[in-house]
Amino acid sequence: FLDLYLIHWPDAHVPGKSNREVRAETWGAMEELYEKGFCRSIGVSNFLISHLEQLKEDCVITPHVNQVEYHPFQRPQELVDYCRSRDIVFEGYCPLAKGEALTHPSIIQLAKKYGRTPAQICIRWSIQNGIVTIPKSTKAERIQENCKVFDFTIAEDDVEILNGMHDGRHVSWDPSLIV
């Protein structure tokens, strides 16, 4: 069985079918896998509220997870709140904004204040915001560094500084590409 099986992207390019039809068919197949016990959890990635609403109308099982880009520059709080209100785990990927956050002066300043790296500040901030956070690295030392975020807390006023950095910037995809 799989622990978690996701639809990676809400857009599909299937001739003669709408994206909504393809999402509903795909989700229906995933519901069947879940009901047969082949998947412990099923979810989606990069789904907006409109996509989740359509799934709710077209299907039976609510996604267990919505995996979405989440970092100080991209904090989609309305989507986070929507997911929480429907018991959908919001899972944030790209917490370092593909490295862009690591050179931001405010993040560097907070890293110095807490005696941490900018990466640790971003990951800890995400966790403190209640987000399941999945940083990516291929380097063992960075993976170890990324795990050392549970022995400190960022003060609420500093969390607010990071929350205020949201400018809607996406570093891994273009939201105009999905309908």
Characterization of this structure:
With 179 residues, the protein is of the alpha/beta class. 41% of the residues lie in helices and 15% in strands. The chain has a five-stranded parallel sheet with strand order 1-2-3-4-5. α1 (19-35) links the parallel β1 (2-7) and β2 (39-45). α1 (19-35) crosses α2 and α4 (105-114) packs across α5 (118-128). The longest helix is centred in the first third of the chain and has 17 residues, at 19-35. The chain starts with a strand and ends in a 16-residue tail after the last helix.
The number of helical runs is: 7
Q: Helix share of residues? A: 40-55%
Could you name the ranges where pLDDT drops below 50 across 5 or more consecutive residues? none
Radius of gyration: 18 Å
Sheet with the most strands: spatial strand order = 1-2-3-4-5
Number of strands: 5
Note the run of SSEs as H and E. EHEHEHEHHEHH
> How would the global form be characterised?
elongated
Please summarize the sheet with the most strands: 5 strands, parallel
Strand content: 5-15%
GO molecular function, one term: oxidoreductase activity
Domain NADP-dependent oxidoreductase: 2-163
Family: Belongs to the aldo/keto reductase family.
Protein name: PGFS reductase
